[in-house]
């Protein structure tokens, strides 16, 4: 279990975006220490505070999910992408090649982001509402979105806490402590 790390949303460091439109809290990336131009996969939480363009990430597959707030409308100016990200805990996939712009649907929002380098990694993102088995994957991230969760009968995650594992082929049994609990499970597998 040495490849499993715990984290808490409350203690993740926030870094401002280049365009000033928000901040990002990186949860984990692979390989360790990789920059934005060299990661294989990356998981983060972003606060979108003002409208404007997303950074373009050529060759990157992206998934975004609203955590809190009113949400945003994501769109490309050529009309290929138009999506209201306004329902919490529903992942939306898009290409990092697309020049995505966004408008706020109200105030600032917090979003969960998963990025994988095409041809290297594939991400399976699912939100659990009930007890479930999470299939083994060599890398992954779990985050308690709402309520408390028990993992493999001996580990617990409180709301806002999570686990990240690397090079461990880890499988999990996840069980919620209440009916309204939600857990996001991200499994990274080689493409």
Account of the 3D structure:
There is one protein chain. This protein is mostly beta strands. The chain is built from no helices and 19 strands. The chain has strands at 4-8, 14-16, 22-30, 41-48, 52-53, 60-69, 72-75, 82-85, 92-95, 101-104, 109-117, 121-128, 132-137, 139-146, 149-151, 155-157, 161-165, 170-176, 182-190. A six-stranded antiparallel beta sheet has the order 2-3-4-11-6-9, with no helix packed on it. Strands 1-17-14-19-12 form a five-stranded antiparallel beta sheet, with no helix packed on it. A four-stranded antiparallel beta sheet has the order 5-10-7-8, with no helix packed on it. Strand 2 and strand 3 form a beta hairpin. The mean pLDDT is 94.
Blueprint of the fold:
Blueprint (H helix, E strand, L loop, with lengths): L3 E5 L5 E3 L5 E9 L10 E8 L3 E2 L6 E10 L2 E4 L6 E4 L6 E4 L5 E4 L4 E9 L3 E8 L3 E6 L1 E8 L2 E3 L3 E3 L3 E5 L4 E7 L5 E9 L1
Antiparallel strand pairs: 1-17, 2-3, 3-4, 4-11, 5-10, 6-9, 6-11, 7-8, 7-10, 12-19, 13-18, 14-17, 14-19, 15-16, 15-18
- The helix/strand order is EEEEEEEEEEEEEEEEEEE
- The rough form would be described as globular
Strand content: over 45%
Mean pLDDT: 94
Biggest sheet: strands, sense, closure? Answer: 6 strands, antiparallel
């Amino acid at each position: 279990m040495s490849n499993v790390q715990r984290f808490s949303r409350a203690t993740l460091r926030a870094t401002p975006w280049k365009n000033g439109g928000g901040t990002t809290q990186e949860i984990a990336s692979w390989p360790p220490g990789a920059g934005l131009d060299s990661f294989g996969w990356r998981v983060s939480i972003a606060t979108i505070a003002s409208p404007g363009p997303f950074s373009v990430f050529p060759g990157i597959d992206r998934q975004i999910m609203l955590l809190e707030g009113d949400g945003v409308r994501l769109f490309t100016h050529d009309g290929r992408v138009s999506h209201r990200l306004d329902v919490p805990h529903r992942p939306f996939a898009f290409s990092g090649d697309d020049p995505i712009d966004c408008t706020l649907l109200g105030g600032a929002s917090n979003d969960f982001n998963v990025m994988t380098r095409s041809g290297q990694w594939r991400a399976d993102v699912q939100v659990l509402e009930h007890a479930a088995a999470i299939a083994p994957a060599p890398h992954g991230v779990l985050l308690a979105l709402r309520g408390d969760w028990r993992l493999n009968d001996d580990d617990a995650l409180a709301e806002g806490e999570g686990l990240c594992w690397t090079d461990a082929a880890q499988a999990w049994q996840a069980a919620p402590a209440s009916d309204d609990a939600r857990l996001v499970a991200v499994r990274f597998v080689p493409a």
